[in-house]
Write a structure and sequence with these properties.
By secondary structure, this protein is of the alpha/beta class. It is built from nine helices and eleven strands. The strands form two sheets. The protein has a six-stranded parallel beta sheet. A five-stranded mixed beta sheet has the order 7-8-6-9-10. Helix 1 packs across helix 8, helix 3 packs parallel to helix 4 and helix 5 packs parallel to helix 6. The chain starts with a strand and ends in a 9-residue tail after the last helix. The structure holds nicotinamide-adenine-dinucleotide (NAD).
Length: 260
């Protein structure tokens, strides 16, 4: 399987390139970097040029690049593993359009433990009444992270909302400061910390008057994202995979447990 890496000089992209090159059965084709950065032998001048020689492109770049990547990759017919987070509405729409033409695997977090945490969050939310258990999500990442709350925190929040039969946008609460008043019933609260080199920490708590239940995940090394994305790339690259939008819950066989 021929693999290209969009975001080759990024924190995750560098690990991916090394992992692909070291894995039997995978061929590392090369990658792209942000425009204006020096090209070298393994760096292609455009996503389309990279895609032309690949079976799967793994993309850990920036939200601003997603709409263009979606269009170019759909044109080329290559399969697309997308790890980039913080997509705006146009990026989301472009992603869904591309998934009508090519197989796309998108995950806000490729760590298997987080995929399980999202699924458990959905089940806990379905079991714990929203009028008794206040759901709060806290995330912490390194000081250079650009989007907030993290894509993973939002995925956990979406799972909680889905488990309760709510729409996340109607219940999310990220702006508590000053005279913000009491907590809204049924709200899903988000708190964000940034600092140092923290790879990624997420915690979800359900707090009632008399008890609290929590889930937490810590990534110690970005290799967990690269290895998860590679697992996903091999799954997505299987010849029988039809066009569509997939998640790591499909790769890990957890999809059937999700309601709807
Ligand atoms: P980084 O800043 O270290 O690397 C970004 C890479 O993208 C670089 O190679 C850069 O050259 C390239 N790039 C930047 N802007 C671009 C543009 N406009 N067009 C094309 N390429 C561009 O970032 P990182 O920590 O490697 O994270 C990259 C993305 O992946 C972020 O959105 C981050 O939130 C996300 N991420 C996802 C997961 C996951 O498991 N899904 C894990 C970690 C990070």
């Amino acid at each position: 399987m021929r693999i290209g890496v969009a975001g080759l000089d990024g924190r995750v992209g560098r690990l991916l390139a090394a992992s692909v090159a070291a894995t039997n059965g995978l061929e590392f084709v090369g990658g792209t970097v942000r425009r204006g950065i020096d090209p070298s032998a393994s760096r292609f001048g455009s996503i389309a040029a990279l895609a032309a020689g690949c079976d799967v492109v793994i993309d850990f770049t920036a939200a601003a690049a997603v709409a263009e990547h979606a269009a170019r990759l759909a044109d080329s017919g290559v399969r697309w593993v997308l790890g980039t987070t913080g997509l705006d509405a146009a990026g989301e729409a472009a992603l869904r359009r591309a998934a009508g033409t090519i197989p796309v695997l998108r995950a806000a977090n490729f760590a298997p433990g987080v995929v399980l945490m999202v699924e458990l969050a959905r089940r806990m939310a379905a079991a714990l009444p929203a009028d008794r258990f206040d759901a709060e999500i806290h995330e912490m990442h390194h000081r250079d992270k650009r989007d907030a709350p993290s894509g993973t925190a939002l995925a956990i929040g979406r799972a909680v909302a889905e488990g309760r039969g709510h729409d996340l946008d109607a219940v999310r609460d990220e702006a508590r400061r000053g005279q913000c008043g009491p907590r809204r019933p049924g709200a899903i609260g988000f708190a964000v910390s940034r600092g140092g080199h923290v790879v990624g920490e997420h915690a979800l708590s359900f707090t009632a008057n008399d008890e609290q239940i929590s889930l937490a995940h810590r990534a110690f090394d970005r290799a967990v994202f690269a290895e998860g994305a590679l697992l996903g790339a091999r799954w997505l690259g299987a010849p029988e995979r039809p066009p569509g939008l997939y998640g790591m819950e499909d790769v890990l066989g957890l999809r059937s447990a999700a309601p709807g």
